[in-house]
Amino acid sequence: MVRPNSGKLHVRDQDCVFCRIVRGDIPSEEVYEDDEVLALNDIHPVASVHFMMIPKRHIATFGDVQSDDRDVLGNMMILAGRLAREQ
Ligand SMILES: [Zn+2]
């Protein structure tokens, strides 16, 4: 599945594995998707419900989080609980 690059808001890194999943270069089993976030089933689940969430904006590590990532990361925390309850 090819996803359009939405431009500057979603800065992506060519070699980043998470960005490659978001671009569709690496196949994934989607649980949820919106403009900011992709959630997919973990390929090696260790629990009955085990998914991972990726911000579409490239954030390599928690050490790279900037203050303007606040809304995206906050929304991901809320979404994680909601998706877990729904599964
Ligand atoms: Zn990335």
CATH architecture: 2-Layer Sandwich
Largest sheet, strands/sense/barrel: 3 strands, antiparallel
Q: N-to-C terminal Cα separation, in Å?
A: 23 Å
Query: What portion of residues belong to β-strands?
Result: 15-25%
Binned, the helix content reads 25-40%
Mean pLDDT: 87
CATH superfamily: HIT-like
Poorly predicted regions are 4-9
* CATH topology type: HIT family, subunit A
Number of strands: 3
SSE order, one letter for each helix or strand: HEEEH
The oligomeric state of the chains shown is: single chain
Tell me the overall shape: globular
For the record, the CATH class is Alpha Beta
Strand order of the largest sheet: 1-2-3
**Which kinds of small molecule does this entry bind, naming each only once?**
zinc ion
How many distinct domains? 1
- In DSSP terms, counting alpha (H) and pi (I) runs of 4 or more, how many helices? 2
Class based on secondary structure composition and strand pairing: alpha+beta
Which labels suit this protein?
87 residues; alpha+beta; HIT family, subunit A; 3-stranded antiparallel β-sheet; 2 helices; 28% helix; binds zinc ion
Account of the 3D structure:
The protein is α+β, with helices and mostly antiparallel strands and 87 residues long. The protein has a single domain, classed as 2-Layer Sandwich (HIT family, subunit A), CATH 3.30.428. The protein contains 2 helices and 3 strands; from the N terminus they run αβββα. A hairpin with a 3-residue loop joins strand 1 (30-33) and strand 2 (37-41). It is globular. Zinc ion binds next to helix 1.
